[in-house]
Description:
By secondary structure, the chain is mainly alpha-helical. The chain has a domain at 61-76 and 86-130. It has helices at residues 11-29, 41-47, 59-74, 83-86, 90-110, 112-130. It starts with 10 loop residues before the first helix and ends in a 12-residue tail after the last helix.
Amino acid sequence: MKSGEAPWPGAALGWGLGLALVTGGLITGCGQDSSKDGAGPRDAARTGTDSPSPSATPPEDLCTRIVTYWSREVLDEDTYGDYQSMGLSNGQYEILMKVVDAARAEKKNKGEPAADQLIDRQTRAGCEELYRDGAPSGGPWQ
C-alpha cells in the first residue's frame, strides 16, 4: 500500500461520501425549526406570525398601571410629588390628582378598600379618555 492510499479499495469513496452526507445534512438543517407544525423562523418572518417579540402594551394600559401605582403611593401623603420624578406625563399627572382627591374622600367616608376600588375605576376611565384617539396631541408631556 502506497502512502496516501486507502487501506482497501473503495474506502476513499466511502469516506468522501460519508463526509458529504454529514456536511450536507448539517447545511440543509440550518434555519429549520423543530416545532411540531414545521414552521421555522424564516416562515414566521415571511408570514408575520410567531413573532419572537411580545406585542406592544396599549398606552391606556400603561397609563392605568403607572397612575394607579402612584395614586396609591401618594394617597396618604399631603402632597402629590413631582410628576417628572414619577415618570408621568402632564395628562397622566392630572388624572392622578383628580383620582387621589376623590380617593381621599372615599377613604375617609367608606374606608381603604373602597378607595382602592375607586382608584382602579377612575384611573382606568381617565386613561382611556386620555388615549381615546391614540397618543395625546399636545406634545409628549401631555
